[in-house]
Amino acid sequence: xxxxxxxxxxxxxxxxxxxxxxxxxxxxxxxxxxxxxxxxxxxxxxxxxxxxxxxxxxxxxxxxxxxxxxxxxxxxxxxxxxxxxxxxxxxxxxxxxxxxxxxxxxxxxxxxxxxxxxxxxxxxxxxxxxxxxxxxxxxxxxxxxxxxxxxxxxxxxxxxxxxxxxxxxxxxxxxxxxxxxxxxxxxxxxxxxxxxxxxxxxxxxxxxxxxxxxxxxxxxxxxxxxxxxxxxxxxxxxxxxxxx
Length: 244
Hints:
Largest sheet: 7 strands, mixed
Low-confidence stretches: none
Helix content: 40-55%
Order of helices and strands: HHEHEHEHEHEHEEHH
Number of domains: 1
Strand content: 15-25%
Number of helices: 9
Oligomer: single chain
Strand order of the largest sheet: 1-7-6-2-5-3-4
CATH class: Alpha Beta
Structural class: alpha/beta
Shape: globular
């Protein structure tokens, strides 16, 4: 029975992700093509991602348990850091948190399906650090949230990867606060080197919790020099995300 359920879920996953690819092209080149209001494009992005997550939930590929959802919806113009268990984490986060962008792998800018959306609305990784920070600040200055997975790689809930200093550097340069989120899965789903059709025999449960924010003004008063600020803020992110 479990094999049959797993097979059915695999077929549904293939169809859903094929739909995601087609709808991405439709959203980018039809809905956004003639829209000069970039902020409106982020509204369209959120609604399209929310619809995709709704489909995944309706077909019981996943369940989504969200605490403090109103708090998440009201995060504004902040740097957002989150744990990173799966490939679709950013889709989940953007579907909930309005006016958000993120850093994406440079290879996606060459993906024939995703490149239009990526180049229009997201920030590419792999750029020199000063440009990387400058691009993030441009997004923040427009009133957007910038989402960062500060560990840089997907990881399991019992793992504590090293936190990089990118989020603290952007917060230091922009003066924006850092909102911290905990996203976990009940089992490995769209993990590293895991095919997207490996959906298991039961719905994967994503749990999302708001963990509070770092007031960067307070840290700047305590740590006026850039190096100490980045070190202490990075430690605080690690402490909150991984209880270390």
